[in-house]
Write a structure and sequence with these properties.
The chain is an alpha/beta fold. It has 17 helices and 20 strands. Bound molecules: NADP nicotinamide-adenine-dinucleotide phosphate (NAP). NADP nicotinamide-adenine-dinucleotide phosphate binds next to helix 5.
Length: 547
Amino acid sequence: MPDTQVLAERPDRDQVAEYDAIVIGAGISGMFMLYRLRELGLTVRVFEAGTNVGGTWYWNRYPGARFDSESWTYGYSFSKELMREWDWKEHFSPQPDTLEYLNHVADKFDLRRDIQFRSTVTAAHWDDAGDQWSVTLESGQRAKSRFLFTAIGILSAHTLPAIPGRDSFNGPAYHPARWPHTPVDFTGKRVGIIGTGATAIQAIPEIAKQAKQLTVFQRRPNWAAPLHNSRIGKDEMEAIKSRYEEIYAHCARTPSWFIHEADPRKTLDVPPDEREAFWEKRYAEPGFGIWMGNFRDILVDEKANAAISEFIAKKIRQRVKDPKVAEKLIPKDHGFGSRRVPLESGYFEAYNRDNVTLVDTINDEPIECITSKGIKTSKQEREFDILIYATGFDGVTGAFDRIDIRGANGIGLKDAWAESPRTFLGMLAEGFPNMLMVLGPHTARGNIPQAIEHSVEFQTGILRFMREHNHTHVETRKEQVDEWTRTVIKAAEPLLSSKVDSWQTGVNRNVEGRTVRRVLGYNGNGVHFRRKTDEVAKGGYQEFAFR
Ligand code: NAP
């Protein structure tokens, strides 16, 4: 992938440029926001930390990285021309193809001229007197704007493991979210990887094919199911294109905006043979059907969840030859689907290879420290040439916390959200005028690109309304924030996932202070969410205070 970025002209350090809108981030959210804001005739500057567009798909270049949602439901749908001209090559697009797609979008709509790369935003302060935002970059450069859009993703604040000696390793050490732009050659190398989340589950089978020895340090296993990826032929792609409208309309009608929809039956109402046959079918099909297209109660009913968990455990036992290793790969602390299910391509079979070793860091060999040569456990010092920290992210609020965001009267967003995020629709926070968040906490976000498009359309709708009514200042109201926060918390209550530790529930053992369970997303029905935003728009945005 050529790095063909054209840098938007960078003003002098002392010069404070003024724009109508500043967007933080040039991933899928920021790119589309820029496109729509330009259409409104606004002057826009996007600040992006990377050297090119793509966000998640720019940073996460690790081996095996790919969509685990169907490519043809995971692109932009705002431009029919773009949909017509772009051919997805695989049902679950590999990262290089996705990045190529996003570069194509940037070229096609000439987005880069308003994007300033290598520009990390460190602070954004609301100026009460000037009624505008003042944004500061790591370089010291400053800029001002009436509106601030955060398009910083939910998984962009990566976390390194809090293990003593982490920086003392002599060889190369990588986090998958900061993977080098030139491919890493594992040939003949002894590789250690810490973590067994969705990222590692994609990377491990690929690295195992090349490395001399791959040692996986697992703290807690995750449930995973097969992706069943395949190539898309020309005729098949044409057929998909002819159905795009129907496909996207269908997604918009499902609770998580995916093509998959839950089976209306309850697990234990279905006779065991029929249930087993249904699960076999789902397990053999591509994509998230085994998770989202399962019986409707598997994510809320303990007994139903135990039954599907046992089915998946059986599959792991069938696929992993060594029974002891298989048992270690079966989660015991949470049920299937109660954490985000990674979809895999040969993950379990990787442990059948002679060059792959699984180390259980809870029950067998706790990690004591990282040394110059490798990883020292309670039993031995294991030596490596390369280390990989696939240790995840400070999800959802982490990226906000890394920017000093201050609203009216200097109130800090981090302080305002110390106990829990509080927003209206996950898009506006109380006390932060003219700041709109794409993929903010408490928004609906099943199928992420579709959630992004929906948010951008809603938010630019607010701006259009403001222009028509000569408003320059928008805020959310306390009562709306209270009500939405209650709605979000209530929607999470019945879910088994709410009781489990994960980046989605805010309990992240790798980040200091992330020990309190919080609801970080709207887990209600996406159809209801669309209805709610439509009602707000049709009702003339009465939920907001305008000036
Ligand atoms: P993750 O799911 O949070 O996994 C992090 C892993 O690192 C966990 O296994 C964790 O163990 C382990 N870990 C963290 N600190 C550790 C330490 N100090 N010692 C030992 N182990 C440690 O992170 P991720 O795999 O990067 O995935 C995050 C999310 O990104 C996914 O849930 C998914 O939403 C998204 N993702 C999507 C795709 C895709 O769309 N294709 C691909 C990859 C990721 P514990 O579980 O014990 O904490």
